[in-house]
Amino acid sequence: MTDAHRLVTALMILLFFKYDSAQETSTEFLARFEREAKAIRNSWAEADWKRQTNITTENQAAFVKASLEYSKFSQAMEKKARLYLQNKNIDLTADQRRQLTKIADIGTSAQTDVEKLERYAKIKNDMASIYSKAEVCLDSGEKCLQLDPGLTELLHSSRDCKILSAAWQGWRDQSGKKMKDLFTEYVQLGNEAVQILGYKDMGDYWKSAYETPTLEEDVAKLFEQIRPLYEQLHAYVRRRLKAVYGAHIFPSSGHIPAHILGNMWSQDWTRIGEHVKPFKDKQSVDVTDEMTKQGYTTKRMFETAEEFFYSLGFPNMTETFWRESMLERPKDRDVVCHASAWDMAKEDDFRIKMCTKVNHQDLMTIHHEMGHVQYDMTYTDLPLIYRFGANPGFQEAVGDTIALSVQTPQHLKAIGLLQAEDSYDEETDINFLMQMALDSVAFLPFSYLVDQWRWSVFRGDTKPESYNEVWWDLRCRFQGVSPPVKRRAEDFDPGAKYHVPANVPYIRYFVSLVLQFQFYKAACVAAGDTGPLHHCDFYSNPDAGHKLRSMLKLGSSKPWPDALEQMTGQREMDAQPLVEYFQPLFQFLKKENGEDHGWTEDCPDNPPPCSNTAQRWRIRYTTAVLSLSLSLITARFLIART
Ligand code: X8Z
Ligand code: ZN
Fold first, then answer.
1. Ligand 1 atom at minimum distance from 447 CA
2. Do 296 and 435 lie in a common domain?
3. Do the Cβ atoms of 110 and 197 come closer than 8 Å?
4. Number of domains in the chain
5. DSSP type of residue 485
6. Are residue 419 and residue 564 in the same domain, yes or no?
């Protein structure tokens, strides 16, 4: 805080307490905040819901207006909260101090220049809208594809290197590339706003949600704990994919081309499960086919998730949830399809917005989203300012913890989604762990690097001209994936990932990956499970449910180590449970890979094309031989007839 800032604050304290005849006590102020903040948060959330479930110019304008009102309110509350915090004559309890500190921490709402505030809201709208409306026309005659479901399905199912590459590049041309200038302006405006509060930059503000000065070091250490496992998974997948696509599309640097991993961002590899399944004749746990066979509907998928939570002592979804949620993509309007959960800050109004498809992955995403809703419903009696996860990673981890239990073969069999087989042996077990690793282990470096990139951008270390280059430096270095086509400075590939235009921090997903295995282990211990960790299904166990709920009840009323301790007895994030869970797979992969693992830190110079020269010559040679043989046969036939 500058001296001028201090002087103004001191004067305001003086004025406020000397002349405000109807002076509010801190308790009265907090009660008023509760009433007013609920109303304003609800109208803001309604406006946001409208714009995301129906992207129109009017709805976007209404959202900008609601955002400005929210900021104005936040600024007024911030000023008052600071007066209480800075007045040494007022006795505040530790809890009141925590609440007031949070009320004063208003982020980008601190911007007092209304034009800038408005511009900032508009830029966010525009980036989100470019992303949500983007379409790729692969062939002039064909229908153009949106990300969801078109391109996503194509990335899942096509094995044609050229088509995959065109879809991969097309998506980046139509989304990220079109918002680079908007993003550059967004960075400047965001930084300027939070600097008013004394933060160094927007990344510094985002990190403050973890209430520790060592977040960057902490996540770096956790990443190192898991890196060997990722490296082994990467090597195995690379070898198996070479057998599918031919080694010629793989650069000699050891990277995997980013477009063949079954996902637009190579962050989730579950869709290439069939190609990399270690034991081909043994069962795996993708239940998509079984769900289709049994005629699963979206509603039934949500009910399946609801039932698991209920078995642990959580409530069912509310009537408002079923009435107001958007569970499928509407046909008549543009929407933001990326799944999200909503606490509307009003009685029992909790919602999910999702363009659900009937498949295994979406069933797990439903558990993820319902985890958010259950968290929100569990802490609903807390003051509004505490109605958040203990840290953002906690919010992301709840549903995924449940999904670990749901996906055990035992549970899937119990709910009739997996055929009961006679034998469950070590090979089936490795198949199962592989499928789980393609989901979570594969995701670790991506979830780690997205904010490494954004923190560096917000800090000013990465300038607009090198946005894309630094992005790919990180992708190549941490994920070991490389672009299938040449990238240039005018490309903006980070913007092709939802959370970048949507202004959603990403390190939360990395933190969540670590935490969910800690939570899972704690729930299994509470349930008295003594088998290998990855076999544990805590379905309907009241002790596991009670443990989880008692942690969630705290919301963000206490620093997160307190919440973690409540559930696990530990105050630190620790990747050991994750490592323990995947131990049998790690041993298997090490044996299979031998010395064949790793990649160079730098990206390869040039992406190998889908078909190489040798292959092209082979095709030409085969075609020539075939047509010659055909001509000879025809000639012989004609001679024989004459
Ligand atoms: O964005 C999400 C959720 C909503 S919080 C669907 N996830 C990340 C992503 O899609 O990139 C869940 C996993 C990671
Ligand atoms: Zn989430």
1. 14
2. yes
3. yes
4. 2
5. S
6. yes
Distance CA 274, CA 31 (A): 56
Share of the chain above pLDDT 90, in %: 89
Ligand 1: nearest atom to the Cα of 339 = 6
In a domain, 434, yes or no: yes
- Residue 359 maps to a domain: no
Joined together, the tokens standing for residue 596 give 């064949």
Among 99, 117, 135, give the residue marking a domain's end.
117
- The DSSP-derived string for 171-190 is HHHHTGGGGHHHHHHHHHHH
Contacts of 420 (CB under 8 A, 6+ apart): 413
Atom 14, ligand 1: residue with shortest CA distance: 509
Instruction: List helix spans (H) across 319-422.
Output: 319-324, 360-378, 392-406, 409-414
Cα of 340 to ligand 2 centre, how many Å? 6
Ligand 1 centroid to Cα of residue 376, in Å, is 17
Looking at the structure, tell me whether residues 433 and 530 fall in a common domain.
yes
User: Per the domain annotation, does 374 fall within a domain?
Assistant: no
Which of 65, 95, 117 is the last residue in one of the domains? 117
Q: Are 463 and 570 part of one and the same domain?
A: yes
Q: Given a cut of 50, is residue 21 above it in pLDDT?
A: no
Closest CA to ligand 1's atom 8: 509
Ligand nearest to the CA of 268: 1
Q: Which residues are annotated as a binding site?
A: 210, 368, 372, 396, 508
What lines the ligand 1 site, CB under 6 Å? 339-340, 365, 368, 509
Neighbours of 619 (CB within 10 A): 11
Kindly list the protein residues that place their beta carbon closer than 5 angstroms to ligand 2, a single-atom ion.
Answer: 396
Q: Which of 371, 369, 367, 305 is nearest to 337 (CA)?
A: 369
**Claim: this prediction has a pTM higher than 0.70:** yes
Q: Is residue 282 part of a domain?
A: yes
What does the longest C-alpha to C-alpha distance in the chain come to? Answer: 120
Question: What is the rounded average pLDDT for all residues in the chain?
Answer: 94
Domain span holding position 220: 201-312+403-604
Q: How confident is the model at residue 371 (pLDDT cuts 50, 70, 90)?
A: very high
Q: Catalytic residues, which ones?
A: 369, 499
502 alpha carbon – ligand 1 mean position (Å): 12
